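User: Hi! I'm a student and our assignment asks us to look at how structure tokens line up with a sequence. Could you show me two examples?

Assistant: Happy to help. In each example below, the sequence comes first and the structure tokens follow. Example one:
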Amino acid sequence: MTDFLSQTYQYLRILHFISFICWMAALFYLPRLFVYHSVAKIGGEHSEALKVMERKLGRFIMTPAMLATFVFGGTLACVPGVLASPSGWFHAKLFCVFLMAGFHGFLMKMIKCFFADERPFSEKKFRVLNEVPTVLMIIIVILVVLKPF
């Protein structure tokens, strides 16, 4: 098994990057949809269309991409020598990834709120929340590329 993992390391990395990019794209887009949905007329055509878009984005893109990111990332961590002695950067990255997963869960809850015609936050608050995945992504990329500690 370890030989197989070593031989497929580059392909696993590619799949991890692709799934992470897909996950991030959805995490960037969904809060933007919430900005528009928070000001849409309840029961209106625009609101109903946004409900469909939000649900499909969450169910068919965001959640599968997150799961694939975790599967490929976890598999990469099992490749011999990759984490021979995990240092602080890796633990910090994992912490940020789990924060991102928590944010993902929060967004899924917001989908349910909007589906029930609730408006949990203002347009302005959703604009601020739209920046959370960007900040976390920047930190994760810096940690992975620079391995500062």
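Example two works the same way, sequence first and then tokens:
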Amino acid sequence: MDIVSATILLILVLDPFGNMPLAVSVLKHVEPKARTRVVLRECAIAYGVLLAFMFGGDKFMHLLRLSDDALAIAGGLILFLIALRMVFPHAEGIFGDSGETGTFIVPLAIPAIAGPSALATVLLLVSREPQRVLEWVAALSLAMLVSTVVLLSAQRISGWIGRRGVIALERLMGLVLTAIAVEMLLAGIERFIVQLPR
């Protein structure tokens, strides 16, 4: 996987367009002048969490004695479940709540942006090719930049394309992410089978 593919994957996993309704919901009680500051703060917190997981993920894996194959299979499963929820969203919201809570870390930074799928993805990227960690950091930074711009423009974009447009865009991203998740899952299973004693 190259840096462009990794960036696209991370953008799909971070799901900025799917997070727009949540951002609009949690920010409606915030003064318009403070909304930019809140979004930047939440995105910075999520970015910090993802970076910490990217650099500390290898030690975490060794501590739990997890193999790369197990992580690939688990990451594929998690991405697949997240993608299904993007394609078939629940009525109560993306993460099972209405988003009416505060905007301090939860639910916008975690788990909306830095959720299980994003954490699993950055961990998987580094564990598969740790020598390219600077490329993965660059990919994460670009993906985070795109997500930040989208969330900063959430009110405006929602007004332009409407709620149905946002839902259609999220489902399209979910379909693409489903294919990526299946590919990741199959790759992990294939490597596991190859290592089995004959």
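Here is something you could point out in your write-up. The chain has one domain: 3-195.
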